[in-house]
Amino acid sequence: MTERVLIKNLAALEDGPVTVSGWVDTVRDQKKVQFVVLRDESGAVQLVNPRTTDADGVVVADEPATTISGLSQGSFITITGELKHDERVKLGGIEVKLASIEVLSHAIPETPIAPDSSLDKRMDWRFLDLRNPKQNLIFRIQTTFEHALRTYWIDNDFIELHTPKLMASASESRAELFEVEYFDTKAYLAQSPQFFKQMAQSAGFGKIFEVGPAFRADPSFTSRHATEFTSIDSEISWIDSHEDVMKLHEDLMVAGFTAVKAKHGDEIKALFDVEIAVPTTPFPRIPLAEAKQIVKERGYEVPRDDDDMDPEGERQIAAYVKETYGHEFVFLTDYASSIRPFYHMRHEGDSSLTNSYDLIFNGTEISTGAQREHRVDVLIEQMKDKGMEQEELEFYLDFFRYGAPSHGGFGMGLARVLMLMLHQTSIREVTYLFRGPTRLLP
Ligand code: AMO
Predict the structure, then answer these.
(1) According to the UniProt record, where is the region Aspartate (predicted)?
(2) Domain 7-105 is classified in which CATH homologous superfamily?
(3) Residue 365 among known ligand-binding residues
(4) Half-sphere exposure of 216 (CA within 13 A, CB side)
(5) pLDDT tens digits, residue range 208-263?
(6) 354 in ligand 1 pocket by Cβ < 6 Å?
(7) How much is the ipTM here?
(8) Residue bearing the CA closest to ligand 1, atom 29
(9) What is the rounded distance in angstroms from the CA atom of residue 79 to the CA atom of residue 378?
(10) Fold held by 126-430
(11) How far, in Å, is the centroid of ligand 1 from the Cα of 419?
């Protein structure tokens, strides 16, 4: 394979012969001169072909003019030509005068989507939608963000896990559970790596992380729910409370945002008109009960008293935090045990509250974290309290019967982080291939 010159690197080359590959963005087939805008994953460049004329000034049908006339948008081509710097050229101040074109694949001329097509239509034709530089940037940002998190984890001696996604039991609640036929029995798709990341603590791994798929049979069509999503999980041992998990969580966010700003800050500003702000630590922390009170004083009452913060409540508390602390992140802490899973540790002396938190970013929940209950007798009591059957989770309880350290961790939806970071209105925009109740294709 010959080394390919990325279009973004052409500007740094001197005038002279070049070979470039990409897909056709536009063709302007004029009488005396032809222009093609060629794109690759890094940028776009203008190609120019002055047409040949005979002695009488009549245009001659020669190459590459004939091939250019037959080019459709989206065709993949490799060209050779003469690179020339010319500041009059609007597109990057360079131009390539064509010598030859090799067409690798002709595209059907009628493109099924346009930039103003509906999100649903764009998702039907996701591979074409992803040719848009804005979409391409989203996945570069995702790569940089994940890389920064991994670097943090690896530098701090975390072990990476790949936990199974086929399970014999539910991993969060029995609601939102996908059941699959598994030979002569049933299996369930993992809703989160929860139990197995806790198992790693009993295995003495100390600090772990996983970035992997999670499945929820959630029939809702909100902008922030998918039936399959990428979950970023981390779990650590020897913690004193959920405060230690929040410290880890904010360090990771700082690492991720610092890397994204450094590498893509200018492009994000140019394409999304968003200024990436690296958050300062500590992030504000507000107990949920207090947050509800603050929101109430602002004139919004969260529906039921013992319920979770609803989306409007999240937006309201985020607005308060932004005004008061100038911060885009806030930890809401100490959720009621009635709305938290059985494995969350409850307050010493007040079992109605848990050592837990949600992380809100730009007004939407991106993460849930907690200290876990590691004492098996208390864990069994908490299961009973929730009316759960013990039998199905005996394998999980065993993790705590043979010794376990204090521990805690969090799970965070990758797409939610990207959506809110880039001020997008739906996780569909930032998910490579979205899965929802009515979407299994492409
Ligand atoms: P929870 O169920 O709150 O907690 O999920 C954690 C985070 O995962 C993301 N998320 C989703 N993203 C897209 N579509 C969905 N349907 C969806 N459901 C959840 C959210 C959410 O904040 N085991 C615990 C975490 C822990 O305590 O470690 C858990 O799964 O961003």
Answers:
(1) 194-197
(2) Nucleic acid-binding proteins (2.40.50.140)
(3) yes
(4) 17
(5) 999 999 999 999 899 999 999 999 999 999 999 999 999 999 999 999 999 999 99
(6) no
(7) 0.99
(8) 411
(9) 69
(10) BirA Bifunctional Protein; domain 2 (3.30.930)
(11) 15
